[in-house]
Amino acid sequence: MSTPRWRTDWETLHNLPLKKLYVEHEWISQARMVNMKWADFMLMPLMPSLNNEFNLEGIKLVAHPKLVVLLDGSRHLVVSKKHPYGAMAFKALATGLAMLNERGVILKAYQQAGFIPDLNKYKVLNQLPETNTKK
Q: Which of these, 27, 110, 13, 119, lies nearest to 71 by C-alpha position?
């Protein structure tokens, strides 16, 4: 269950061999549907610092302990070229990100946030396109 509004999630679920894919635009409504057993599962981020558990309006969401679905997406920062400080901000961001990347801080942050799971602990249910898995 997901929403076409979340393109990456929707396309990922469409590529899985699911019997039925429900459309529900609100995350809380998705949680309610799973909680009431109207749907089998929903996507949620791993949250290692919270034991991969999340409480939402009295509903306890728990990530599967051994299965993950990888999303074929990325995170971006947008800087306006028209803003008077846009060029300076872009240069500062590029410099800072390069320094963080060199020290391994970005990878560690993605891992701690659950965006990059420890694949020794999980079975991946989907295969990402080859072009995005070689980084």
A: 13
